[in-house]
Specification:
Elements lengths: L1 E4 L5 H8 L13 H9 L3 E8 L2 E9 L7 E9 L6 H16 L4 E7 L3 H9 L3 E12 L2 E11 H20 L1
Parallel strand pairs: 4-5
Antiparallel strand pairs: 1-2, 2-3, 3-4, 5-7, 6-7
Amino acid sequence: MIIRAALPREIPEIVGIEQIPEYRSYIGAWSAEEHFRAMADPDNEYFVACSEGAVDGFAILQGIESEHHSVHLKRIAVRTPNRGCGKLLLEYGMSRAFLHHRAHRLWLDVFETNTRARSIYESYGFRYDGALREAILRDGEYHTLALMSLLDREYSARQQQGVNAVTSAVRL
């Protein structure tokens, strides 16, 4: 599996992933036109995970030109869950935000009821910042979003711990 910048010709595959019925209660779904506009905006970055020529998943970073160095992880979605693709996209997005775009803060919002995603983000060092109560209306029902973020120093410390763990393992 490789992760690279998304191409405009891949937008139909991106839209197809968003349309997976199980995702309706967890992520948004944009039209192809909305994705074309967002992909053309220099403040956004799209990337895809591909294997055998097909898009297995995608992610979107927004605010990469922010004067506040606060980057928004807008979306991660994968065609087939539980294969590690989402975690690879998250790790890649984190490295792009902090190492390439020099973000001070990487933030996201996630449905409060999406405990699986929240647990994964927490395992990568994201902290709970608060909630946007009943901020999303979907299918006639309001949903609360949990705000989470990771700061550059937390990302660096996490990376350093990973290096130290590898170094310690090699010494044993």
